[in-house]
């Protein structure tokens, strides 16, 4: 079997996920044994026509982005979206919560027409996505897991349980015990609960678990002293495209 | 002599973010020589609007993955000033070490992985794995070591976790810190020595081009300023950080979704070379030796030498963090709860040096501790006008070389600034109407 | 003298100070590795290998992970395999003596439940190897808001399963010799100690009874509340995080996954704690899920504690450690659910009578 | 106190078996013939399953579709639906796989002696039932009428064409097949499997019914059987749940207080009626 040809592309994002791959120092050489990197603008000049696997970082937010993503999809056998921006719209999508005009004008004033922008969307809003690697930034072990699975020709496991599960497996002190709040109970795991492990609350960077009890989550935050509006804002940091967050009715006292 | 030239480098590689180089000469007249910033703007102000002070650094960190630590530090310092949150000496030392680590890692990444292939005439670092394995391995080790500083102290090098307003959510163990320090002393010093020797042998690959400009950085009486200081212009002297708007004078140009800046001249430069020019006397001795070995002496007006200045800083940061760790370890690391009870509300302005230059964050908070006004000025934005000016001087000087050679030199020029484009288009500058 | 006091008074006992307890730990450390509660954060405790006896916390409400972590580790490699040549090896599970020190009575009771689960039907070698030579030194504790083990029939001073037991008194502790193993452990430690012959009197009950019915009646309540509205009530606020499962002393469900190394050749088959409160736990082929709703998941969890295995093992599988309640991010308390079920059941009975 | 000194089991270590034959049945189903190391007999009962594993690809429960009366080699029919089963479809004769088991209760054919047996098989549900069908055919004299009803979504999904031919040709077997959607050349019954039931003439008291199929099928088949007045005690179902261990520990296959891997997969219908979460 010849080595899979893989490529990386970046859209609207902080490029932290790209950088995270360059931070694979210890594994980089073994990785190069496993695959051929044929395109990676942030690190190399080469380009290619087709790819076995295309990894997409960043969200789609301009007409140019849309054209590019269609083009990449056409040439890629497998397409993986990488990181919260690509999977969920990420923090970028918070801008959708405000009227587009206000946003443009706020930054560029009367020059706003120079730089067209559209509502921020995840990659899956435009093209078929085969696998998703969440996280802000994506976790390198998970990236390697998906890559190895693809090399072996099997579906990678993608977790759909709460961060609390991993947090408990690590026996981290629960930040709730320290009087903080946490989105871990409704946020998707896969990060090995790094934030609580480092004493910080979970911001829900991987989005919510599917089938999440959002009303319950709002109630949970209220229990920790937040207003209902503040609670929804907290849940929206990474999941602003999740309409249920504004809709779910919370009957919690 | 060539009369016409058209260069259009679409999505310049080996830089962070999306930019195009456009040069256009007609009948011997240079019509255009500019770096077009085509990155999609991200509108961070919309993300910050109404956000609580506890979340602001988490969000601004996402402006840029490469400079995430720098953004967090600037953000936390601005928030702390606005809310009157005092931080301890221990916190300041830890943040300084983190700043050293981030500068060390980013400069290494740029100099050795993104810029170095130019000197060795290849398109990326990957072919070097076969031709220069020992160099690549040493570079990888250095980068890992730099990232480990971030991992050990802030939980994660990209989008650090433990840095919060008022301090740290968790502190490194003394054992871990000792191990890390030992590695810096042995592994780190050995590898940087080796790398410097290699780069010194390639010195003739650096184009000779000079254009004197204004150099702006932080400066401090205590140390080679990275974490903190006052603004310093090589032309006009020092200014308090609060006066930053008078220095940056941002303006919008049509070819860039990032704003440009100018102060005393038509443009100014920030970054490693600016810091070196302004503060070189405060480098640690070993860094001074490295500068000498690599042929860098102040003042240096060759922007291509920015990459060399970055390596000098790597040496400095290794030495500096070893020294700071000594201080921490001799005092003993004490558990402290972060101070997060605001003493006031209002405006806070802070500056810090990130690898690419001086970074400003400016916030105003309401009485709920939520953001009402935010502004954030990023180094690459400040460099853009200077890059355009460099190109305008450079193109006529090399106009008789082949088009490929010109293109290559222009690419190298832009790259040597280590531009961080995604950063530059995420600026905030907005006043919110209070709800 | 009540029955419990009578039982305790049959054991040989010594009066020792807290200082002596530390010396005891040092003494035990010479015999085998000792695991005991330690501080693990601002307000958390966990069982760890003892390095210094002064690090051991003697009075604590509960550790975060229950003692099951030593017998059914949160993550355990079951096999190491080679994909290319289809071979594997099973990592050796050492059968060693380990001393667990400062263990509460409900924790010991939970192990009895796990013993049942791992020896009934198929007798799992991994669990049994770890469990075989374990020695336990119990300690009494001050129940907090979330504890309710008395309500499920487990006294603070219950000594069953322990080899030695430390009973707190006003000056220090009574050290009780429970088993022959325990007695032998004290060889070389108690040389200067004289058995205390004074009759032991327990302090009046410190436990508030937190469940309305006697524990013997609970399984029968569960015969009638399967369709209760109470499940919906809690499902509304439960967020399905699974914390209550993962930290439960008697939960033992797991997942098994194959993980491969970067050479795409070596790998391991690893098991992880799992939980029936999690969204996809009971999903079946075609995406169907017979326990999709939180109400059904909550119901299943409680039936597992009070009815299902209970019928066969004749033990309630909730030991009242209070972990599920203490760590629940929305503050759902096990005893509240049970009391609501009891109330619902009573109401139904009343209605039926009329 | 539990006696920890008693013998224990290495529950999760598979035996490495060899695939001796692969037969493509449909686009998504293949049949595998397997040889245990040393050509050891599996000693299974019809209706039992094994945990099949491929290193790096995981494990899954697969029913044994051959009868224990047919020698030491055994057969599995596998539908490619995921990690393990997709990989299995790439294997060929001589490849090795891991086997644990047999697990589960299986059917007790001894208890069906002298009875008429009605097999209701939906889709891949024919695979586990084939094991029992073959068993009863190999001991034909022990049983009364043998009636096989088989339904699939469309003709291209029909499993075991060879066996079906034999069943159709045998005088002592009553066989009927139906498809949900017919193709051009299909001449047989069209309609869901329940359409085959009303027309049957049965000695209801003396007929044992075994039902295996996708989850949705059970409710409808049971309704039809009720229409036929088949006593509940005469009905057996085989249920499917995801499993991680196969030995009654992992909890995934639990239906109320029963474990499919221990108390099932074959359930007596009266028991199923007490299990709210079963179907
Ligand atoms: C007693 C018994 C007998 C069986 N007999 C047979 C048989 O004879 N032949 C046969 O082919 N099958 C049989 N099965 C079914 C077989 O075990 C399943 O199809 C098996 O799980 C496939 O494993 P896999 O690794 O290939 O698929 P998996 O990768 O586990 O995926 C199976 C399906 O579930 C989906 N899925 C997986 N994980 C998740 C998740 N976390 N969330 C949502 N969806 C998910 C997948 O997309 C896929 O559609 C039997 C099952 C039981 C319980
Ligand atoms: S810290 Fe957060 S993620 Fe961890 S257990 Fe507590 S609530 Fe869950
Ligand atoms: S811990 Fe609480 S919120 Fe989480 S699953 Fe259990 S009951 Fe629900
Ligand atoms: S159900 Fe709750 S109280 Fe009972 S044993 Fe489990 S965690 Fe402890």
Automatic annotation (TrEMBL), chain A:
<dbReference type="InterPro" id="IPR037024">
    <property type="entry name" value="NiFe_Hase_small_N_sf"/>
</dbReference>
<dbReference type="InterPro" id="IPR051349">
    <property type="entry name" value="Hydrogenase_assoc-protein"/>
</dbReference>
<dbReference type="Pfam" id="PF01058">
    <property type="entry name" value="Oxidored_q6"/>
</dbReference>
<protein>
    <submittedName>
        <fullName>NADH:ubiquinone oxidoreductase</fullName>
    </submittedName>
</protein>
<dbReference type="InterPro" id="IPR006137">
    <property type="entry name" value="NADH_UbQ_OxRdtase-like_20kDa"/>
</dbReference>
<dbReference type="GO" id="GO:0051536">
    <property type="term" value="F:iron-sulfur cluster binding"/>
</dbReference>
<keyword id="KW-0560">Oxidoreductase</keyword>
<feature type="domain" description="NADH:ubiquinone oxidoreductase-like 20kDa subunit">
    <location>
        <begin position="14"/>
        <end position="149"/>
    </location>
</feature>
<dbReference type="GO" id="GO:0016491">
    <property type="term" value="F:oxidoreductase activity"/>
</dbReference>
UniProtKB/TrEMBL annotation, chain D:
<dbReference type="InterPro" id="IPR050353">
    <property type="entry name" value="PyrK_electron_transfer"/>
</dbReference>
<feature type="binding site">
    <location>
        <position position="253"/>
    </location>
    <ligand>
        <name>[2Fe-2S] cluster</name>
    </ligand>
</feature>
<keyword id="KW-0411">Iron-sulfur</keyword>
<dbReference type="GO" id="GO:0050660">
    <property type="term" value="F:flavin adenine dinucleotide binding"/>
</dbReference>
<feature type="domain" description="FAD-binding FR-type">
    <location>
        <begin position="12"/>
        <end position="109"/>
    </location>
</feature>
<feature type="binding site">
    <location>
        <position position="261"/>
    </location>
    <ligand>
        <name>[2Fe-2S] cluster</name>
    </ligand>
</feature>
<dbReference type="Pfam" id="PF00175">
    <property type="entry name" value="NAD_binding_1"/>
</dbReference>
<dbReference type="InterPro" id="IPR012165">
    <property type="entry name" value="Cyt_c3_hydrogenase_gsu"/>
</dbReference>
<keyword id="KW-0001">2Fe-2S</keyword>
<dbReference type="GO" id="GO:0051537">
    <property type="term" value="F:2 iron, 2 sulfur cluster binding"/>
</dbReference>
<dbReference type="InterPro" id="IPR001433">
    <property type="entry name" value="OxRdtase_FAD/NAD-bd"/>
</dbReference>
<dbReference type="GO" id="GO:0006221">
    <property type="term" value="P:pyrimidine nucleotide biosynthetic process"/>
</dbReference>
<feature type="binding site">
    <location>
        <position position="250"/>
    </location>
    <ligand>
        <name>[2Fe-2S] cluster</name>
    </ligand>
</feature>
<dbReference type="InterPro" id="IPR039261">
    <property type="entry name" value="FNR_nucleotide-bd"/>
</dbReference>
<dbReference type="InterPro" id="IPR017938">
    <property type="entry name" value="Riboflavin_synthase-like_b-brl"/>
</dbReference>
<feature type="binding site">
    <location>
        <position position="245"/>
    </location>
    <ligand>
        <name>[2Fe-2S] cluster</name>
    </ligand>
</feature>
<protein>
    <submittedName>
        <fullName>Oxidoreductase</fullName>
    </submittedName>
</protein>
<dbReference type="InterPro" id="IPR017927">
    <property type="entry name" value="FAD-bd_FR_type"/>
</dbReference>
<keyword id="KW-0479">Metal-binding</keyword>
<keyword id="KW-0408">Iron</keyword>
<dbReference type="GO" id="GO:0016491">
    <property type="term" value="F:oxidoreductase activity"/>
</dbReference>
<dbReference type="Pfam" id="PF10418">
    <property type="entry name" value="DHODB_Fe-S_bind"/>
</dbReference>
């Amino acid at each position: 079997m010849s080595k899979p040809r893989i490529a990386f592309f970046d859209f609207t994002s902080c490029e932290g996920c790209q950088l995270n791959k360059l931070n694979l120092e210890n594994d980089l050489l073994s990785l190069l044994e496993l695959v051929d990197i044929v395109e990676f603008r942030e690190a190399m000049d080469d380009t290619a026509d087709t790819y076995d696997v295309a990894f997409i970082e960043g969200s789609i937010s301009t007409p140019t982005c849309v054209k590019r993503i269609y083009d990449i999809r056409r040439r890629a056998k497998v397409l993986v979206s990488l990181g919260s921006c690509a999977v969920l719209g990420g923090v970028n999508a918070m801008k959708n919560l405000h009227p587009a005009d206000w946003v443009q004008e706020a930054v560029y004033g009367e020059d706003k027409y120079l730089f067209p922008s559209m509502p921020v969307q995840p990659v899956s809003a435009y093209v078929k996505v085969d696998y998703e690697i969440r996280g802000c930034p994506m976790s390198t072990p998970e990236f390697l897991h998906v890559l190895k699975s693809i090399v072996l020709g099997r579906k990678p496991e993608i977790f759909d349980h709460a961060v609390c599960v991993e947090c408990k497996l690590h026996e981290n002190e629960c930040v709730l015990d320290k009087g903080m709040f946490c989105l871990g109970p409704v946020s998707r795991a896969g990060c090995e609960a790094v934030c609580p492990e480092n004493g910080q609350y979970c911001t829900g960077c991987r989005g919510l678990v599917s089938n999440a009890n959002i009303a319950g989550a709002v109630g949970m935050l209220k229990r920790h002293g937040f207003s209902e509006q503040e609670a929804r804002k907290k849940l929206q940091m990474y999941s602003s495209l999740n309409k249920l967050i504004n809709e779910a009715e919370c009957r919690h006292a | 002599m060539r009369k016409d030239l058209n260069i259009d480098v679409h999505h310049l590689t080996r830089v962070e973010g999306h930019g195009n180089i456009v040069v256009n000469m007609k009948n011997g007249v240079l019509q255009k020589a500019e770096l077009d910033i085509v990155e999609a703007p991200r509108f961070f102000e919309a993300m910050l609007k109404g956000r609580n002070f506890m979340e602001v650094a988490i969000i601004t960190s996402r402006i840029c993955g490469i400079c995430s630590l720098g953004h967090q530090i600037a953000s936390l310092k601005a928030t702390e000033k606005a809310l009157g949150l005092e931080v301890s000496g221990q916190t300041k030392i830890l943040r300084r070490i983190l700043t050293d680590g981030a500068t060390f890692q980013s400069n290494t990444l740029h100099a050795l992985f993104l810029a170095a292939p130019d000197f060795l005439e290849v398109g990326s670092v990957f072919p070097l794995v076969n031709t220069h394995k020992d160099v690549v391995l040493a570079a990888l080790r250095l980068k890992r070591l730099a990232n480990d500083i971030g991992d050990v102290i802030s939980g994660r090098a990209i989008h650090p976790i433990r840095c919060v307003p008022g301090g740290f959510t968790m502190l490194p163990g003394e054992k871990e810190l000792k191990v890390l320090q030992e590695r810096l002393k042995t592994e780190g010093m050995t590898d940087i020595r080796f790398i410097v020797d290699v780069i010194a042998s390639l010195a003739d690959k650096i184009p000779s081009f000079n254009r004197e400009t204004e150099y702006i950085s932080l400066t401090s009486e205590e140390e080679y300023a990275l974490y903190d200081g006052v603004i310093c212009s090589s032309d006009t002297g020092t200014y308090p950080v609060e006066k930053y708007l008078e220095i940056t004078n941002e303006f919008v140009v049509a070819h860039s979704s990032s704003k440009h800046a100018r102060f005393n001249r038509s443009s100014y430069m920030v970054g490693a070379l600016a810091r070196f020019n302004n503060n070189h006397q405060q480098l640690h001795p070993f860094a001074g030796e490295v500068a000498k070995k690599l042929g860098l002496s102040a003042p240096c007006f060759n922007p291509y030498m920015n990459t060399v200045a970055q390596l000098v800083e790597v040496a400095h940061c290794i030495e500096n963090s070893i020294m700071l760790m000594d201080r921490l370890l001799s005092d003993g690391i004490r558990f402290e709860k972060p101070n997060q009870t605001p003493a006031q509300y209002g405006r806070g302005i802070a500056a810090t040096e990130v690898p690419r230059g001086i970074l400003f964050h400016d916030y105003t908070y309401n009485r709920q501790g939520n953001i009402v006004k935010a502004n954030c000025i990023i180094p690459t934005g400040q460099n853009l006008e200077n890059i355009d000016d460099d190109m305008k001087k450079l193109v006529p000087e090399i106009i008789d070389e082949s088009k490929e050679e010109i293109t290559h030199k222009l690419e190298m020029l832009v790259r040597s600034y280590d531009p961080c484009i995604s950063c530059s288009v995420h600026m905030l500058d907005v006043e919110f109407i209070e709800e | 003298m009540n029955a419990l006091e009578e039982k305790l008074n049959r054991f040989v006992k010594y009066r020792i100070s807290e200082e002596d307890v530390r010396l005891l730990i040092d003494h035990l450390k010479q015999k085998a590795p000792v695991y005991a509660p330690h501080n693990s954060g601002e307000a958390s405790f966990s069982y760890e290998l003892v390095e210094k006896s002064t690090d051991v916390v003697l009075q604590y409400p509960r550790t975060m992970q229950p003692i099951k972590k030593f017998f059914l580790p949160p993550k355990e490699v079951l096999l190491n395999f080679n994909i290319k040549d289809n071979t594997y090896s099973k990592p050796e599970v050492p059968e060693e003596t380990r001393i667990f020190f400062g263990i509460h009575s409900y924790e010991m009771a939970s192990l009895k439940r796990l013993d049942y689960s791992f020896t009934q039907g198929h007798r799992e070698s991994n669990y049994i190897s770890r469990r075989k030579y374990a020695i336990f030194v119990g300690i009494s504790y001050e129940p907090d808001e979330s504890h309710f083990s008395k309500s499920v029939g487990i006294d603070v001073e219950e000594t069953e399963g322990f080899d030695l037991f430390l009973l707190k008194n006003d000056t220090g502790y009574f050290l009780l010799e429970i088993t022959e193993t325990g007695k032998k452990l004290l060889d070389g430690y108690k040389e200067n100690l004289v058995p205390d012959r004074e009759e032991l009197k327990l302090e009046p009950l410190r436990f508030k009874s937190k469940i309305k019915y006697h524990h013997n009646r609970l399984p029968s309540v569960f015969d009638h509340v399967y369709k209760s509205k109470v499940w919906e009530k809690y499902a509304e606020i439960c967020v399905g995080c699974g914390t209550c499962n993962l930290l439960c002393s008697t939960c033992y469900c797991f997942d098994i996954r194959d993980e491969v190394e970067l050479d795409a050749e070596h790998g391991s088959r690893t098991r992880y704690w799992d939980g029936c409160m999690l969204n996809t736990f009971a999903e079946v082929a075609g995406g169907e899920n017979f326990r999709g709703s939180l109400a059904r998941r909550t119901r299943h969890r409680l039936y597992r504690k009070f009815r299902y295995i209970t019928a066969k093992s004749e033990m309630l599988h909730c030991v009242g450690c209070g972990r599920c309640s203490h760590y629940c991010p929305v503050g759902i308390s096990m005893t509240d659910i049970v009391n609501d079920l009891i109330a619902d059941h009573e109401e139904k009975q009343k209605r039926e009578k009329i | 106190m539990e006696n920890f000194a008693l013998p224990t089991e290495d529950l999760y270590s598979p035996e490495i078996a060899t695939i001796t034959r692969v037969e493509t049945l449909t686009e998504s189903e293949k049949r595998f013939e397997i040889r245990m190391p040393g050509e050891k007999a599996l000693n299974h009962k019809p209706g039992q399953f094994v945990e099949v594993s491929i290193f790096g690809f995981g494990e899954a429960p697969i029913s044994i579709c051959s009868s224990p009366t047919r020698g030491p080699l055994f057969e599995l029919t596998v539908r490619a639906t995921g990690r393990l089963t997709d990989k299995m479809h790439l294997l060929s004769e001589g490849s090795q796989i891991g086997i644990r088991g047999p697990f589960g209760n299986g059917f007790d054919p001894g208890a069906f002696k002298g009875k008429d047996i009605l097999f209701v098989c939906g889709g891949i549900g024919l695979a586990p039932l084939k094991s029992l069908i073959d068993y009863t055919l190999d001991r034909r004299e022990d049983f009364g009428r043998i009636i096989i009803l088989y339904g699939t979504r469309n003709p291209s999904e029909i499993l075991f064409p060879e066996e079906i031919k034999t069943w159709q040709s045998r005088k002592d077997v009553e066989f009927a097949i139906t498809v949900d959607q017919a193709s051009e050349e299909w001449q047989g019954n069209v309609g869901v499997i329940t359409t085959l039931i009303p027309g049957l003439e049965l000695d209801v008291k003396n007929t044992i019914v075994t039902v295996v199929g996708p989850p949705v099928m059970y409710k409808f088949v049971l309704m039809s059987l009720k229409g036929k007045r088949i006593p509940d005690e005469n009905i057996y179902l085989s249920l499917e749940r995801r499993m991680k261990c196969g030995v009654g520990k992992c909890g995934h296959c639990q239906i109320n207080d029963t474990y499919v891997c221990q108390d099932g997969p074959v359930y007596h219908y009266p028991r199923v009626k007490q299990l709210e979460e079963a179907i």
